[in-house]
Structure formats: structure tokens, C-alpha cells
Amino acid sequence: MNDLPVPLPRTLNVEPTVGGGFVFYEFTEAKENRSLSFEFTEDKQTNKETCGPEELGVVGHTVTPADMECTKEIDHQQTMKALAQQAGNDTCADCGAAETTWASYTLGVFICRNCSGIHQNLYEHSQVKCLEDPWEAAEVQFMEKHGNEVAKSKYAVHVPIYYYQPTHRDCQVLREEWIRAKYERKEFTKPDKLKLCINGVREGTLWKRGRDNKQFLIRKFVLSEREGTLKYFKTQEGKEPKCVIKVDSINASFQPSKIGNPNGLQITHRKDSKTRNIFLYHEDGEEIVNWFNAIRMAQFNYFKVAFPTAVDKEIVNRMTQNFLKEGYMEKTGPKQTEGFRKRWFTLDHRRLMYFKNPMDAFPKGEVFLGSTSHGYDVKKGLPEGTLGNFTWRHGITIVTPERNYLLTCETDKEQQTWVQALTEVLGKPMTPQDCAAEAHFRHRS
Ligand SMILES: [Zn+2]
């Protein structure tokens, strides 16, 4: 009784290739006079692959079933790697990172290492393996049949235009909830499966940081699509809102490190032409990400009515955006002889705001940034003979039609990234809305 198929006698020839670190194995199936070729890379994790042919003892030797298994496994790995390089599979199915070193063999997607960590918490829906792991023939076949494009047409076919699809630069909660929404809750497999509002209203509680006492307290929030407002109330039963925020004036961005909570959300809005920040979080990642997307939905619908001729892409550009850059710089006053003071700067669209502290409710000042064709400019360094006691040595001069702003950065890398971010803003042509905002700033100052 022997269940194993009797191996045919085979001859194995071994030839190391020139360069590239590959060893080339070839053997002939004696009976059928057929030849097969394999390539082995030399820097693999398992012993089978790292040992050379001499160590395997296979030179001029009959190939055993075990040797065949080994070559098959390596064959599968090579197929997986080739698949991961195909268009569509070469960027992460979940965050778009240009690195697909992992795959989910139950969903059929190629993903990055970062996203694979999130998939590992979704064991019921997704089972992942590194491309370097051993792959079974059936798994490879499944991946061949599926892949990122096929998975997209299944799991992400009805993603609403306003729904924020995170990139590899976004924070954990945004990436994790996007992955859970797609594969665990399957919110985009049918139209209208995702419910962010009921009858145009979203109501719930969020932790909000107090402006003065800096303590996070529970507040009731109500988002009304019809009114285009986000309100919050001091108490659950409260009739009079503490604040009414117009959705078209909102920018919302996740700020986990600044807020000190993985689900921390900053809402920047304008009221009576003053910019105001509020800082929120919810313990539940799904809840906070849904609030964020509900605000985007309300914004989208508001702009759709306000600008009926605008195309969807233009509208999306007006919605919430990650801040272009934030960080400390030193700044002098309008006379440019005052002492330089350390301030927290936030670049939000065309607004450069500065605060005494990163979590202040109100900025100490704001600079509107137009475009180079409208007389704005940014340069490295300070004008010659700049007075004032600045401790940081890496200067930046922002030129506006009204005045120059003199700033200094702590390191040349900071100077470099600020100049780059500001130059990018100034390089963009101004839209009619930008011109209106500029006029408003001039009128105010
Ligand atoms: Zn990814």
C-alpha cells in the first residue's frame, strides 16, 4: 500500500547564472524527455531556498517528491510576485501605497504591509499572507482570478463621491475604518447601504474640548443637511444650541497627535469672519469617521445647490482637506523690528494662520495667500539687515501686496518643507472664490 505517486526518474542539471544572484536549475523528465526550468533567488527565509544545490545533495541526483514540492512552492511565490507587479495590483488596494508585499487570499487583494496589519484584525473577512510566505496552488489561482480591480468592482463599487478615501499618509483610524467599511460592513456593495444621516439629520454625542478649561466634555451634536448646519448643545435636552456652524465654512481634519487621541478630529470654521477651532473625539472609530463623512456629505449637497453649474470634481476640491502643513515658526510684527515670537502655524487652503498654542480656539492672525501672478511671493531667508532677536536661523519671507511677513524655522529641513508648501499654494491660479476671499481679507485688515 503506497498512496504516494511513484516519482519518475529525473536528472537534474545545475548551472549558476552570471550575476543577479540567481541559481538556475534545470531537469529533464527522462521518460517524456521534457525539460522544465526554475529560478531560485538566494536570499529567502526558508532553508529549502537558501541552501545551494550541493547542500541539497541534488547534483546529478534523482529528484524526489520533496524536491518537487520545494520547486512548486518557489514557483507559486514567483507567480505571486509577478501578479503583484501587474497594473492595478502594484498599488495597495486600500491606501494606494506603491508597495504591495502582502495579499489577502480570501478577498483577492494585494496590499501594503501597513494595511495588512489592519486586515489581521479582520480575520473573519480577510486572511493575509506576505508574498514571501509559502503559497498553495489554490490560493495562487484565486489571486490570479481576482486581484485589486476585481475586488474594487465588488467591494467599492458604490462609494459616494463625498466619502473620503484615505491614502497611506492618513492616520490609522481613517485607514482602518475605510477597510472595515469595505470588507467587514460591506457598505459600498449596494447603493445607499451606508447610512450617515436619517431623514437628512445626524444626531449624537461627541467629546468636545472646552475652550477655557481644556477639559473634554460630552456635547450633543446635530448635523442638518437641509439647514446646512452643524450645531452643538451644552446639555442633552438643551433647546438652544451653544454654537451654529455653517457647513460651507467648515474644514475638518483628523489630528490624533495634536489632540492626544487616536480618533481626534479638528473642526476649523468661520463665524462672523473669525476663524475658530474646536477639538473633538469619539471612543468609537466608526462613529467619528462617520461624523467626518456626514459633514462632507452635507457640504457636498450644500455646494451642489449653491453652485448648480459646478462639476463634481470642483465641489470635492472645496470640501474638507487635510492641512497642507503645520508646525512652529518664529514671527516678527509688522514693523519688523519687534522681537520674534514662537507661534504655531497652520496652512489651510490659502490661509496661513498662526496661534500662540497648537490647540487655541482662535488664531492670533491670518495671512491670505494669493498667487504669484497677483503679487504674492515666498523666498528663503530674511531681508538684509533684519533686526530683532530671532533664535532660529532659517528665515522665510512671505511677500503679499500689503506687507512682508518675516518668519524663521528651527531647522533647514523645516524651512525647506514650509517654502515648498507655500510655493505650491502660490503657484495655483486663483479661482473667483479665492479672489472674493482675498477682497474680504483686505477689507478686514
Ligand atoms: Zn495600504
UniProtKB/TrEMBL annotation:
GO CC annotation terms, alphabetical: cytoplasm; plasma membrane
Main location: cytoplasm
UniProtKB keywords: Cytoplasm, GTPase activation, Metal-binding, Repeat, Zinc, Zinc-finger
Domain of life: Eukaryota
Molecular functions per Gene Ontology: GTPase activator activity; phosphatidylinositol bisphosphate binding; phosphatidylinositol-3,4,5-trisphosphate binding; zinc ion binding
A Pfam family it matches: PH
Domain (PH) ranges: 199-300, 322-427
Ranges for domain Arf-GAP: 77-196
UniProt subcellular location: Cytoplasm
Cleavable signal peptide: none
PANTHER family in UniProt: ARF-GAP WITH DUAL PH DOMAIN-CONTAINING PROTEIN 1-LIKE PROTEIN, ARFGAP WITH DUAL PH DOMAINS 1
Protein name, entry field: Arf-GAP with dual PH domain-containing protein 1-like
Organism: Pleurodeles waltl
